[in-house]
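Q: What would this chain look like folded?
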Amino acid sequence: MPFAQIHMIEGRTEEQKKVVIEKVSQALVEATGAPIATVRVWITEVPKENWGIAGVSVKDLGR
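A: My prediction, written as structure tokens:
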């Protein structure tokens, strides 16, 4: 059973996350030959203050 865990900064729409799940699932099917019914995708949304780039939180960077 292929399993993909995606970490993203919060703020994507439900529709954007739906597309991520669909495309990642399809990529795993194509890459592994696993049946789509066995593919799992887990999206974890990280608050902007908990994600850092070059020593600065994304929130402080204004992203």
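Strands lie at 3-9, 40-46, 52-53, 56-57.
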